[in-house]
Amino acid sequence: MKYLMFVCSDTEPDTDRSDWPDVEAWVAENDTRGRRLAGDILADTSAATTVRVRNGELLVSDGPFTETKEVIVGFDLLECADLDEAIEVARTHPMAREGRIELRPFLNPDA
């Protein structure tokens, strides 16, 4: 089953810095095991563009539409047997401690 893993910042990171996981090791392990299909870091929200159409009119604005301190900073596309495996993959990502991880299955799990 495919999951999109949003890697997000958080205003309340874990304060226990002992045994902090290494992101490069996490990527290498999950790539090798075939669980990580793709992933990347996103540019800062200052480089974002928001596109909307309202009443047939194109509205383009700089940056994110909402004002928030928690932002998506990256993503990974996962292939896992089930949600439990996806949670285990997310649990070991460094940003699970520094930020937050959101897992979303694709609507059509066969796609």
UniProtKB/TrEMBL annotation:
Q: Name one Pfam family in it.
A: YCII
For this protein, the record's Gene3D superfamilies field holds:
Dimeric alpha+beta barrel
**Domain YCII-related: where?**
14-105
- Domain of life from the UniProt record: Bacteria
For this protein, the record's SUPFAM superfamilies field holds: Dimeric alpha+beta barrel
Q: Which PANTHER family match?
A: BLL7171 PROTEIN, BLL7171 PROTEIN-RELATED
The family annotation for this protein states: Belongs to the YciI family.
Q: Can you name this protein?
A: YCII-related domain-containing protein
- Look up and give the organism this protein is from: Micromonospora endolithica
